[in-house]
Description:
Strand content of chain A: 25-35%
Helix content of chain B: 25-40%
Low-confidence stretches of chain B: none
CATH architecture of the largest domain in chain B: 3-Layer(aba) Sandwich
Number of helices of chain B: 14
Distance between the termini of chain A: 19 Å
Oligomer: heterodimer
Shape of chain B: globular
Structural class of chain B: alpha/beta
CATH class of chain A: Alpha Beta
Largest sheet of chain B: 7 strands, mixed
CATH class of the largest domain in chain B: Alpha Beta
Distance between the termini of chain B: 52 Å
Number of helices of chain A: 6
Largest sheet of chain A: 6 strands, mixed
Amino acid sequence: MMDRVRLVFSGSGGQGVITAGIVLAEAAVLYENKNATQTQSYGPEARGGATRCDVIVSDSEIFFPKVIQANILVCLTQEAYMKYHDMVRPGGLIITDTRYVTVLRSMDCRQVELPLLQALVNATGSDKAYNIAALGTVLSLAGIVKPQSVLNTLLKRFPHADHTVNARALEIGMALPT
Amino acid sequence: MTESLAFMQGNEVCVEAALYAGLDFFAGYPITPSTEIAEHLARRLPSIGGKYIQMEDEIASVCAIVGASLTGHKVMTATSGPGFSLMQEGLGFAVMAEIPMVLVNVQRGGPSTGLPTGPAQGDVMQARWGTHGDHAMIVLTASGHQDLFSVTVEAFNLAETYRTPVILLLDEVVGHMRERVMIPEKNQIPVIDRLRTSVKAGVDYHPYLPREDGRLPMSDFGGEHRYNVTGLYHDMWGFPSTNPKVVHGLIRHLTDKIRHHAMEISRVKEYHLEDARTVMISYGSSARSALHVVNHRRARGERIGLLELQTLWPFPYSLVAEKCENARLIVVVEMNLGQMLLQVKRAVRHPDRVMLANRVDGVLITPSDIQSILRLIQGKGV
């Protein structure tokens, strides 16, 4: 892993992009002894609106906690993609869901388009833990933290009754890019 | 409780630190970006036998904690700009009646309801002068979670030591950001408890008669002693007085008890100031961006440093003057139109060397914003 990864999860309020970022950053701090910050920007509405969650994971101390140039951008809506695709560094990575996003072709970075929602619904019959599935694609494509660290965090943060669903979604997300 | 590693929001760190300091009563009216403080305390306080009350508004909230503090509790409320404006009357009462309490203002963009989810540092002067009349005020802040923990405990300690409200002036970025924090073991940070009177029940107790060291022991209201509490100028019994001697003595007492201890109250952090020709002065989340710039430029050999303020008021004038003594350029980094800038100009020998690096559009000032401003000031263009 690079010694500093700057990642942005983006989508619509209610999709769980902020939670996905929190889980990733918490896994890095609690189970891998790294530094991480997580910040967010969102509008006053509880649902809808462009939501963005910035995560920095680093071996050294992090002062400025926002992401200006991202190594990795995850977009779960077209609006978020149009708003944020420019912030990816040349050679960076954009992950999108084909269900929601049509990508621009002129980008100087790696764009991975995945039928994420489709795969999740096909496998589980529901869109539950969609955000965790999205996190799974990040782990698969970029590493950052070990899947076990994320599983530990999911167990710690959420009711045990939800763990099977979360773990399955993570697995589906991780399997998808290969 | 053993030391433990956590990953949490600034607002949650504030809650954990308040509980560490002995908080057992919170009354508030949730408002973005401070809501998580109320949310976490609603869950945490009942489980430790404390009281959490969601009030009908911010005026009631501040009044409720004033009352609870008098009865012997360690109290706090949390709000943001619009609520802070409403709380000014109760805050003034707490100054006058000498009530220990902690008021957290997680700043958002203002004036009015302003920018609920965007960061700003525009309440610095309101924290100092928001309530009417001459008075002193202790206002603390922090830029990261480890400091936020100790500063919050310190806020409670200062409130008890000086029998005064203490304002914890945070901002949206620090409040909402999540990062690593070590929750200290019990007793790792000293906690100052309520100084109670040794006067026995049935013996006259003077609530406003200072001891030789200037401190005023309290008696839990509704307990062993009957006494009066008022927002009017009052004598040692707590009863209203218009006697010029009493009035003069009290206003001097209220301001001197803090002014005379300004050096003990002052908390600052210094980064590379020894030989700095450019001194940046900042606080809260802005200081994170400033520190990023200092480290970046230091690595390239520039003699630049940062003075981070954790005590905003009383403003450490003499310390700022001393640290800026050899500076050719002093840059105040803040997210307002220059509220601390004015204090720095008052403090230093060459006010014309003091410049402002700011941002007031609801976005955290970035290291590149500061870099651009520095280049312009240093005559290097954009």
